[in-house]
Amino acid sequence: MTWTSRYRTAARAIAVIGAAALVSACAGNGGAGGTGGTASGGGGAYPDRTITFVVPFSAGGPTDTVTRMIAEPMGAKLGGKIVVQNVEGAGGTVGAGEVARAQPDGYTVLMHHIGMSTAPALYKDLGYQPLESFDMVGLVTEVPMTVVARKDFEPATLQDLVTYVKANASKVTLANAGIGAASHLCGLLFQTAAGVKLQEVPYEGTGPALTDLVGGQVDFMCDQTTNTSGQISAKEVKVYAVTTPERVGSLPDVPTTTEAGLPQLKVSVWHGLYVPKGTPPDVVSKLSEALKTALADQKVIDQMAKLGTAPVPAEDATPEAHRTKLQEQLGTWAKVIADAGVKAG
Prior knowledge:
single chain; 13 helices; 41% helix; globular
């Protein structure tokens, strides 16, 4: 299956879960940490109360958007309510740590992206280990990334950009959403591929970073199509390339990095669902089946396609496929980060 065929263009709509429901859930569920999160006293069939999906990044960002897309159909399949809670900080490690320490009962679920595989290499005292602290539920989607710049930035093509940043390394600003964020990782790969070290400007989330890019306060950045497609279509930013082997259906005129002359820059941002280690296997199975149902929902497919992505195939929305992916990515990013000499904190 080609990249283009998997990422079909369709109308955008994002499922929104009300703030009132979130407040109610946090009050009744002990928050993301799940300190009040033991199974209900009646011992009813799972789920018999609200499930909290923790997003370790800011509201409105790419991971938050994907989470809200699948929460409603997953809740419908499970026969319960799912609320989304944003627990930001330290490149996603704060929220992930809270979920790792939560009750392993299926009522606190983490949505994380590629950052789960990079955190051990970036943070000395992480407080959890991806493979040992969590059980995997399944992969959700792999999102292409784009190289974008303020619309009046001088370089016209990706090759021009490489030439320009090499000649102006001390002046060019490369924005990202903070150490360990997908935009930061893509930026590291760009600098490695281009053979240059740039001045990086970290933000607390991709939203503010992209806002400053549109406003011309920074020069360029890498970010996911789920966050940049609207600005690209509106011509609020200049786009150089997508970081995938094939062009993206929703951005058919944007070349790949290979076509644009920088084949070393290839990265996509995969997302997956996690629960605390020790969650009962039947609960993990129910969550995985609900995930498969959500990813087959036409509304979800259409929402993702509009943003340049698509659900993973059903065989990847499983604990086994998810664990295999995570193991492989942990090794890949450990080397990239070590070579870059980057550490958080």
